[in-house]
Specification:
By secondary structure, the chain is an alpha+beta fold. Among the domains are: 117 residues, no CATH class; 165 residues, no CATH class. 60% of the residues lie in helices and 7% in strands. The chain contains 15 helices and eight strands. Helix 2 runs parallel beside helix 11.
C-alpha cells in the first residue's frame, strides 16, 4: 500500500513540477498582461497537482482506448528483485528503503513547520503587547466592517522595527512594528492583512506548507511554493487597491517603501508569514501591480487572455497527468510475488491486449511485450517464469487499477 502511494506521489511531483516550469515561462513572457487576482488562483490550481491525484482520477474517465491493464505502479522494474549480484541487491535495497526515507523526510519537515508556528505564537505573547489605543482600534473596526469580517482580530505591537504581518488561524492577530503610523497608513495595513484573513490565505498557506512537506525531495516544489506565495501578495495588493484613486495608490506604494526602509535598519525578531512588505526582491513588481491601470477594452482583453490561459493549463495538466500513467502496465511477478511495472507504447499495448485472457506463460508475455526486460532477467528466474501461467483478472472487476497474477507450476 505504501509503495502504491509513493509511486503516485512521484508522478504527481513530476507533473506539477513541469506545470510550474510552464507557468514560470508564461510569467517571464507576459508578467503584466494577466491580473494577479487571476494568476493567484491559477497558481493554486497548478500547485494542487502536487496533492490531488488527477492522473488516477483521469483513468476513470472514458478518454479512449489505452490499455487493457490499467496503471498501478508499485515496485521496481522486472529483474531487480532477483539474485543478480551485489549491485542488483543494493538497488533493490535502495528501492525498498525509498518510501520510508520519503515519509521520514516529510515528518521532519512538518515537525519543523509546527515548531516554527509554536515559536511565533510564543514570541508574540511574550515580547509583544496588545494595543489598546483608541485611534488604532477605531481604524481596525472600520476596516473589518468594510470587509465584512466578524472575527475578533487583535492588534499587537512588537518591540522591533520590522514589517506588519498577520498570524493565527483561530485567533487572528495583526502585529505592528514599533513605528508611528498615520491613520491612513494603518488603514492600508489593516486592509491588506484583513484581506488575507478574509480570503483564507492563512489556511491556504498551511496547506501549501503541508504539500511542500510531502514533496520535500523535489526542488521545484519549493520554487512553486514561493511562486504561489508571491502571487498571493500581489493579488492581495491588487484587490486592496482596485477601488483606489491614483493618489491613494501612490500613498499605498509609499507606505511599502517606508516599511522596507524601516525594516532594513532593524533586526526581525519574529518570522513574518504574511507581512505587508517584507519582499525586496519583488518590490518593483508589487509597485507595478498597484499602479497599473486596467480599464475598458484592455481590461476585457486581459481577462479574456487569463480565462483562455486557465482553460488551456487545465486541459494540459489533465492530459499530462493522464499520459504520465496511461501506459504503465503492472504485473505480479513470480517467484517473489511482488509487483513489477513497465511502460508500454502503442505497439506493446496492442500485443498485450491481443494476449489478454489467452493461455500463456509469464515468460512468454514478457518476451512478447517487453523483450528488453526479458533479456535482462537472470537464467534461474527466466526458467521459472517460462513455466508460470498467467492468471488474468476478471472482466467483472470494478473500474480501478488492475493487475494480473501468475501461478507457478504445481
Amino acid at each position: 500500500m505504501l509503495i502504491n502511494v509513493i509511486n503516485h506521489l512521484l508522478i504527481m511531483s513530476l507533473v506539477a513540477g513541469g506545470l510550474y516550469v510552464l507557468l514560470g515561462l508564461a510569467d517571464v513572457l507576459s508578467p503584466k498582461r494577466i491580473p494577479a487576482t487571476w494568476r493567484y488562483p491559477l497558481g493554486l490550481f497548478c500547485y494542487s497537482f502536487f496533492l490531488v491525484p488527477y492522473a488516477a482520477m483521469a483513468m476513470l474517465l472514458p478518454l479512449g482506448p489505452t490499455a487493457a491493464i490499467h496503471p498501478y505502479a508499485t515496485a521496481p522494474p522486472v529483474g531487480t528483485d532477483t539474485a543478480a549480484g551485489p549491485l542488483a541487491n543494493f538497488v533493490t535495497l535502495l528501492l525498498a528503503l525509498t518510501p520510508y526515507v520519503l515519509v521520514l523526510g516529510a515528518t521532519f519537515f512538518l515537525t519543523a513547520a509546527l515548531l516554527d508556528g509554536y515559536r511565533l505564537k510564543r514570541s508574540i505573547l511574550a515580547a509583544c503587547r496588545e494595543t489598546t489605543e483608541d485611534g488604532t482600534i477605531k481604524v481596525l473596526r472600520e476596516c473589518t466592517r468594510h470587509l465584512g469580517i466578524r472575527q475578533n482580530v487583535r492588534v499587537y505591537t512588537a518591540p522591533y522595527r520590522g514589517t506588519p504581518f498577520i498570524c493565527g488561524h483561530i485567533e487572528p492577530r495583526i502585529v505592528l512594528p514599533d513605528v508611528e503610523f498615520t491613520d491612513q497608513q494603518l488603514e492600508y495595513i489593516f486592509l491588506h492583512e484583513l484581506t488575507h484573513l478574509k480570503r483564507g490565505d492563512l489556511w491556504i498557506r498551511s496547506l501549501i506548507v503541508f504539500v511542500n512537506a510531502l514533496h520535500w525531495f523535489n526542488p521545484l516544489a519549493y520554487l512553486a511554493r514561493g511562486r504561489v506565495e508571491r502571487l498571493c501578495e500581489l493579488s492581495c495588493d491588487e484587490s486592496v487597491t482596485a477601488s483606489m484613486q491614483q493618489q491613494e495608490k501612490q500613498a499605498y506604494c509609499a507606505l511599502i517603501v517606508d516599511i522596507l526602509q524601516h525594516s532594513s535598519h532593524g533586526e526581525h525578531a519574529l518570522p513574518t508569514p504574511f507581512a505587508f512588505s517584507n519582499s525586496r526582491k519583488y518590490f518593483e513588481e508589487r509597485i507595478d501591480v498597484v499602479m497599473q491601470k486596467r480599464t475598458g477594452r484592455a481590461s476585457k482583453m486581459t481577462l479574456a487572455v487569463a480565462g483562455t490561459l486557465t482553460l488551456l493549463v487545465t486541459i494540459l495538466a489533465v492530459v499530462v497527468s493522464y499520459a504520465a500513467q496511461a501506459n504503465l502496465v503492472v504485473l505480479k511477478s513470480p517467484p517473489s510475488g511482488g509487483y513489477v511495472y513497465g511502460t508500454a507504447d502503442a505497439a506493446q499495448l496492442e500485443t498485450l491486449n491481443r494476449l489478454r485472457h489467452t493461455e500463456t506463460t509469464f515468460g512468454a508475455l514478457i518476451a512478447a511485450v517487453f523483450p528488453k526486460a526479458h533479456a535482462r532477467i537472470p537464467a534461474d528466474a527466466l526458467q521459472f517464469i517460462h513455466t508460470a501461467t498467467v492468471d488474468w483478472p476478471s472482466e467483472d472487476a470494478p473500474p480501478r487499477p488492475r493487475t494480473f497474477t501468475v501461478s507457478g507450476p504445481e
